[in-house]
Design brief:
The complex is a heterodimer. By secondary structure, chain A is an all-beta fold. Helix content of chain A is 0%, strand content 46%. The termini of chain A are far apart. The chains are: A mainly beta, B mainly beta.
């Protein structure tokens, strides 16, 4: 699986949008971009995933650049409960060991009141 | 509905003791995963089951680690002769299928401290 690069930490004011970047310059054509987050003392929680089109769900939006070498997770109105470590993961689409999630160190997002 | 549950939530073991960590996946989920998370690090893959078959155990750090899922539901991760470097949070996850389109649901983890 391709590796990802994320900033170690970010701050965001409550109520503002949080934009979390991820670089995955060696991503292959059949690899998806996944985002998980881990709130303190809990297990990771799935947020969203995409292949090449932008995606939106009730939690967040995922913007993937046209060359697919980077992506941004957007939390439109961050709350204190969004304080967590956010992991960007690149995952093979089919075959091989696509069942594995390969986590890096992620980005610690701190939402401030 | 109920999520993935793990027990115990916390375990303290003396070096050399054997421990068993239990995972109850979401009912009907075919795939089950174990991950190990050291302090300040992201989770690392240990092993994967599809129903009762252990299809990948490449992430198990040593032969002291053993996992089973005999009836395709509950799983147990056993660590024999625990060492201090085994101290970590052990996370279990389940998924309805192995396809990339199916998300993994994680339990809260078991924090193991070896003294």
């Amino acid at each position: 699986d391709a590796k990802t690069t994320q900033p170690p930490s970010m701050d965001c004011a409550e109520g503002r949008a949080a934009n979390l970047p991820c670089n995955h310059s060696t991503i292959s054509g059949n690899e998806y971009v996944y985002w998980y987050r881990q709130i303190h003392s809990q297990g990771p929680q799935y947020i969203i995933h995409g292949l090449k089109n932008n995606e939106t769900n009730e939690m967040a939006s995922l913007i993937i650049t046209e060359d697919r070498k980077s992506s941004t997770l957007i939390l439109p109105h961050a709350t204190l409960r969004d304080t967590a470590v956010y992991y960007c993961i690149v995952r093979v689409g089919y075959g091989g060991s696509n069942y594995k999630l390969t986590f890096g160190k992620g980005t610690l997002l701190t939402v401030n009141p | 509905g109920a999520g993935v549950s793990q027990s115990p939530r916390y375990k303290v073991a003396k070096r050399g003791q054997d421990v068993a960590l239990r995972c109850d996946p979401i009912s009907g989920h075919v795939s089950l995963f174990w991950y190990q998370q050291a302090l300040g690090q992201g989770p690392e893959f240990l092993t994967y089951f599809q129903n009762e078959a252990q299809l990948d155990k490449s992430g198990l750090p040593s032969d002291r680690f053993f996992a089973e899922r005999p009836e395709g539901s509950v799983s147990t991760l056993k660590i024999q002769r625990t060492q201090q470097e085994d101290s970590a949070v052990y996370l279990c996850a389940s998924s309805i299928q192995r396809s990339e389109t199916y998300e993994q649901y994680f339990g809260p983890g078991t924090r193991l401290t070896v003294t």
